Structure formats: structure tokens, C-alpha cells
Write the C-alpha cells for this entry.
Amino acid sequence: MRVKKIDATKLAALPLLVLGILNAQGGFLVFGFCLLVILAPHIRQKIIQRAAIGVIIMAFLTGAWVAGGPVRAFLSRDLPLYTYNNDWGVLYKTYLLLEADFNYYDAYRTAQLGRFDQPLVPGDIWGWRLPTLFFLWQMLPGTSGISIYILYLTLASSVLYVAYLIGVRYLGPNLGILSPYLLFPYLYFGARDQIILATEWWSMFLFIIGLFFLISRRYFWAIIFLSLTVLVREVYVLPLVLMSVYALLGRRRMLAVFAIPMIAFSVLYLFHIIWTSHYIDAWGTLTAARVLESGWFFVQQTLAFASWEYLFVNFRPFLIFLGLATLGLACLFIRKRGEEAIIWAAAALSFPLAFLRFGTVPYNDYWGIIYVPQVLILTPLALLAFGGGEPPKK
């Protein structure tokens, strides 16, 4: 009997599958399923494509719900019984105080002073979170944080689906499953830990969805999601500025996509500074950059964050993935998709480069959330070096 030869691209995908195994119960089942999808004959039927990503999403939701019991208990606490001593506790206390009709800035200050061990109000403007995310949480039904947990699962599932669409766009339906597969364990960590409240998760979700609309040329929705991104977390101004420069130099039809979010951010941040000035010297600390001497150490910290959710964490998989994502973007550029390669480079690679100079050690390792998910989605693009992938769309 004649055995059909497996092409080199699919064989090259196997190490990525191994490095992406979830370090939790069910990890090998997801690995086995994705292996079957990759090695199967080329998938043409859209119903089969949707079923493939559907299995990944259902596995994520099931695993996250089972592992997220302690987090849901944390998010169900009443205000009088609530004690905390970490940043996530501060964020949740702020939300609870808003539900109790506090002004946002009073709520944030009160929450910072409510730590049982280190009551301290941030002395610079960069330590005060923008109010947007808290107002969005307030729009959810109920007065406890369970709605926040459900929203996290909903957005995480949406990003897994978007990651699959991005993978299919560049690699086809078989290999496209690798992007959500590699992202799965990272989002799983957020669903089982108090760090679910970190603003970085929520802005990252919005950013990735906005980027997908951007490369799909659905500019209205790209503007909406990119605007929400910078209104939730100001650090995403960096890639938007870089994209704006690119648009100004050669793609002026895209300039409004970046200019509108930047204008919206500027207006909000001006009001943010004015309000924060009632509590600290906000204007005086606006240029107080957190400069690093050991920038490479900080980058390694951000690349280590949440890597413990991967079975082969000792191989430092995120450092490998960062190199492969860079290679993949180079291949994308060579394949005459230069515009998309530049957009993704600004979205994923600008942050580790910036972190060589700016950041805070050892406490801000979770800043990896800002860019590592983009790296994980782009890592399979390295397979383009083996000749696989989808042709550019007209």
C-alpha cells in the first residue's frame, strides 16, 4: 500500500505543537487533536474549519471554568469582607467602590490606601490607571465580579477565534490551527488567577481584534477597537504611533485609522491628568520615565511570565517563539505582504525593543501580556520559510 508523503511544512510544525502543550490536565488531548488537524488532508469545507477551532474554544472554556473556581470565589466577595495586598486587589476594590457610587479617582485612591500591609498612593501619573475599563465593567449586569469573569472568557474565546482566522489567512486551514493552539495556555492562565483583573489582558483583547479588522480592511471596526485599546491602556500608543508614521509615509488612506484613536486618547488623557492633579503632581510626573539599566533582564522577565503554563517551560519557549515570529514576519514581507508585516511588527516587536530601555523590575513582568499574545499568534508564520502558506489575497 502506498503511503502518502507528509510535506516538510507539516513536519516543521511538529516542534511547535510540542512546545505549545498545555501544562495542565487535558493538555495532551488538545495536542493530539491539533496534530490530527495539521496532518489531515487539506481542509476545504468551512464547516470542518469552524469545527476545528470550535473544539479548541470548548476545551479552553471547560478547562478555564474548572480551574477558575478560586478566582470566581475571589470575585464574589462582598466589600466589607474584602482584604487584599496586591495590585489585583486594588483594581477589584476600585470596581466595588464604583458600584457603591464612589467617584473613580476617589475609589482608586481609597483602594490603594486599603492595602493591609503597604497602603500607598502612586506618586506619578503612570501609576494611576485610566478609568475606561472600570466604566465598562460597571455596564455589566450584577454587582459582583462574576460578570467580569464571564466577559473575560467571552473575549478570550473571541481572540482564539480571531487567532485562527489570522493563522488561516497566512498558512491555510490546517496549519492555521497553530495560532490559537499556542495562545490557548497563555489565556488559560489569566482565567485561573487573580491577575485576570489586570488592564493589560483587556486592552490586549481589544488590540488583537482591532488588528484583525485592520488587516482585513474593515476600517470602521478597526477604529472602534483600536480606540478602545488606547482608552483602556495607554502603552498601546507606541505601536499606533509607529503605524501612523508608516501610513504618513506611504499609506495615507490608513492614516485616519490611527489618528482617530490617538485623538480620542489625547482627550481622555488630558482629563485624566486634570483629575489626577487633585491627588498628586500629575503634570510634574508626566515626563518621569521609568528608565532601566538592565533592559534585557526585564525583557526576559516579560517573556517568562505565564510560560509556566507550557509543559516544556524549561526550554524557555517564549524566547524561541519571539525569534520564530520575527522570522515569520520577514517571510511575510518577502511574500509581498509588506504592509501587513509592518503592522504586525509594530504590534508585536516594538514592545520588547522599548522594554530594553523602559519598565520596572522585578514587578512588571506581567507586561508580557501587552505583546506576547501577538508573538504567539505570529510564531507559526515561521513555517512560511518552508514554502507553505496561502497566496496573497487580491
The first helix runs from residue 8 to 19.
